Amino acid sequence: MRFLWITGVALVLDQLTKWWVLQTMTLGESVPVLGSFFKLTYIHNPGAVFGIRLGNPYLHLLLACVALIVVGGLLWRIPPEDRLAAIGLTLVLGGAIGNIIDRVRFGVVIDFLDFGIGTARWWVFNLADTCVSVGTALLIFAFGITSKRRETVHNRDSSKNSAST
Q1: 111 has catalytic annotation
Q2: 81 and 30 in contact (C-beta within 8 Å)?
Q3: Alpha carbons 1 and 124: distance in angstroms, whole number
């Protein structure tokens, strides 16, 4: 729980960037930042990640709230020594809350980060999506480290047991 401040920072930065977009851009507007590679493109995303639609907006909100509860539960139960996993979970939590706030306020998620080359573009996303993605990557990495550590300990214990018999 000591990394929970990361959730707050992620949430505040997400909401500030979305507020800025809402104040300075019109829906559909695209402003080049680094040529065609990086643009700010203001869109509404009624779906899930990458614009996937799983049904009506209430279903997306319900699924996001369930995910929020699961992430909160995992964060509550994580051992203190699993710092990397805790940081990953707090990032996921901050991003999830940021997008839930959008769904409740606007019925859609505000997206604006647009990367690509020419017409080959990635999906437009926001800072909350970035936090969820980076947090998920950290969780996968932390799980890999933990699994490797458990395997090493198991192999060492197996070697000790066979040597003592």
Answers
A1: yes
A2: no
A3: 32
